[in-house]
Amino acid sequence: RRVDALQKKIGSRLRLLHGTEVEILADGRLDYPDGVLAAFDLVTASVHSSLRQSRERVTERMLAAIRHPHVDVIGHLTGRMIGTRDPADLDLEAVFQAAAEQGVALEINAQPERLDLNEAHARRAPEWGCLLAINTDAHRPEHFDLRAYGLGVARRGWVTPANVVNTWDVDQVLRWAQGHAR
What we know:
The chain has 7 helices and 5 strands. With about 180 residues, the protein is α/β, with parallel strands linked by helices. The protein is globular, with a radius of gyration of 16 Å.
């Protein structure tokens, strides 16, 4: 309701989208019910726990999220935290293939502690036909300034704007989000 009220206040000069980040639970389910997810313009699904599951299990979780009809973006794919947490042992080829098939974007997370996808993965993903999203993972307004780190990863990975959904105009983003797997 707040987003709708603010949209009415600012008019058509800026389009606000309803979005959320949801947890991919240890069993592969998402932590919001489908009825709630259906109300959002964009849904990012991420793993924040149980990253040390077997390669097969953590890959299955990721594939389940990619195939979920309301998921648009997979956030910080490997879950790495530079210097403190190793990345999850994922079958990246299976993930890239599924993301390309479903039209789900993979995030380049611009937080300096994450930079996940890294530049090597950011370069490989479009080769598989994957879309990308460069996000700041902002928890405070000043985090929006971190976008340069995500752009740096994309540039080192030779990513072009055509592969990055948040370089598109809002109508193209909404068509993609509504049509890729819903």
